[in-house]
C-alpha cells in the first residue's frame, strides 16, 4: 500500500522484460517462475486447487502475480514458450526475507519488543500453509526436470508448448499464535503478544494448498513440518545474528 509501483515494476514490467528476452533466444529456454498463493484472494473453497477461481485478488501484490500468470499464458500462446508458474505458499527458513512475520517475530522476541498478532473476523486466528524452503526447492527442481521444451525460435512459434501452474505448499495450515508458541519454545524466550484486529489491507485470513497436482506431475512431497522447520530457522538465525541481532556473527 505504501509503494504500489514497486510491485508493478518487479512483477509485471520485470516479468515482461524476462519473457521478451526468452522469446527471442535461440534456442528458447523453458521458463519456471514464481507466482504466489495470494492469487487465490477471496476464494473460500479449501484446500486451494489450481482450478479454483483466481479473479478476486485481495491485494495489489496478488493482482500483479495474477497478471503475471495471464502474461505468461500470452507468451506461451503466441511464441511457444514452455512456461511453468509456481504458486508458493508462505515460504520460510534460513536466509529468508526479514519482512516476513516469522522473521520479525524472532527478532522482536529476542529484543524483548512486543509483537503484533492479527486476528480475523469474529476473532478467528489467522492461519498459513507455511512451507519450508528445502521443500520449495525440491518443487522448483522437479518443475525444471519435468518442463518440456519450448517450441519457438527467433520469436516464431512452431507448435503448442506446455503451460503449467502448480501449488507448492505444505498442506497443513498452522495458526499464527501457534507459530509464535513454537518460536518461544525454540528461542526459550516468552513473547510479548499484542493481539489486534486485522486492518483491511488485503491480507487473507487463511491459506491451504491442495498439492495433488504437483505430487502427481513433479513428484513433489514436502517432508518438513513447522516445528522442525522453525527449529532449523532459529538455529541459523542465532548463528548468523547472535542473540542481540547486532552485526552478523563472523
UniProtKB/TrEMBL annotation:
Pfam family, one: Epimerase
High-level lineage: Eukaryota, Viridiplantae, Streptophyta, Embryophyta, Tracheophyta
Family the UniProt entry places it in: Belongs to the NAD(P)-dependent epimerase/dehydratase family.
Domain (NAD-dependent epimerase/dehydratase) ranges: 1-147
Presence of the UniProt keyword Ubl conjugation in the record: no
Name used for this protein in its record: NAD-dependent epimerase/dehydratase domain-containing protein
Keyword Phosphoprotein tagged: no
Keywords per UniProt: Isomerase, NAD
Domain of life: Eukaryota
GO molecular function, one term: isomerase activity
